[in-house]
Amino acid sequence: MALLRSRLPRLGPLCCGRRDIGFFSSTSPSNWSKVVSEAEKIVGYPTSFMSLRCLLSDELSNVAMHVRKLVGTKHPLLNTARGFVYDSRNNLQMRGLVVLLMSKAAGPSTAAADLLQQDMVSGIYPSQRNLAEITELIHTALLVHRGIIDLKEWTNSDGPLKDMQFGNKMAVLSGDFLLANACTGLAQLNNTKVVELISSAIGDLVQGIYYENSCTAEESSPVADVTMATWEEQAFLSHGSLLANSCQAAMELAKHDKKAQALAFQYGKHMALGHKMNSDLQPFVTGGPGDPVSFSLNSAPVAFHRHAVGAETWLLQLQQATTIGRQVDYTKLWRTIQAGKGVSSAIGLCRYHGNKALEAIQCFAPSEARSALENIASAVAKF
């Protein structure tokens, strides 16, 4: 665990006044979908179809037929499957796209004498494209595995118990199938260092899921205390590690030096953490007071709010927002958090991670790919 913490970004004091160093002060809000669409043109093809070969395999086609049995239930695997077909925010394939852009921004290495530049397509080696697909398969497997539900929380309104049990089996089997395909592709890259990097990321993902499940089990407890250090560690494991290690692995495949690899790792880490922070902030920066509210008590704005008001005040606020039936009134709690400093502090941290990602990418020569990486980092920090 000590080694893990040494790899995590350090937040320092939770006072965020020093975080905004100017990258976002004069830029106008940009459309995330437009940024992603323009970036896909640079790497040569729409990455929204990156893992399509595996998703349309005979094995998963059979799984999809069985998943139809879940229609009419509230099993999360259904929503996950719908997301593969229609992802309105273009978030699902973001990781592979960043890996491809990083590969193109760095270009060929002078040390890669045995790698023929004529093998490159749109400035990207075939092995780097394979790595991007592997990254997406691993992330997709994670999303599918997250569709496993705790049957102890099952109610009749969720659907028949036998269907919910069946959905869990499908989530386990299909997620394992995707992960097995990713590992097979990883071995075919024939690079021990890349295998080590991606294996480390898979280990972090598993540990991150364990942390998430532990926190979810305690989320309804009024004494549960998710600090920013806890949020930071969980976010790196569940979201930052895969992208960071994949960006570094892309540099390794082109035989770039350790400095380029370290900077690619930093971009991937801060980009992923900024993306996660942006996701946590969405319930607090979109919509209005009268709109339906849903957010996690483990999200970053809530953790910042807890830190700002102190444990005793937070406990009192949570009790005041809890009904007689011990259900949390999220609308009331949302208003309380909006009135504090948690949201503004979280926005400051999101911009901090965006700035750090921009700093890391400055080492590469100006190009369309580098500009696309800059636009993606900027879009994540727009509110």
Describe the structure.
With about 375 residues, the protein is an all-alpha fold. Helix content is about 65%, strand content about 0%. It has 16 helices and no strands. Mean pLDDT is about 75; it is low at about 1-30, about 85-90 and about 220-225.
In terms of topology, how is this protein built?
Blueprint: H1 2-7, H2 32-43, H3 52-55, H4 58-67, H5 76-85, H6 94-106, H7 126-145, H8 161-188, H9 192-218, H10 228-253, H11 258-285, H12 300-309, H13 311-320, H14 330-338, H15 342-361, H16 368-380
Helix pairs in contact: 2-6, 2-16, 4-8, 6-7, 6-10, 6-11, 6-16, 7-8, 7-10, 9-10, 10-11, 11-15, 12-13, 12-15, 15-16
Beta-sheet strand percentage? under 5%
Shape: globular
Helices and strands, in order, run as HHHHHHHHHHHHHHHH
Number of strands: 0
Q: Average pLDDT, to the nearest integer? A: 76
Task: Count the DSSP helices.
Answer: 16
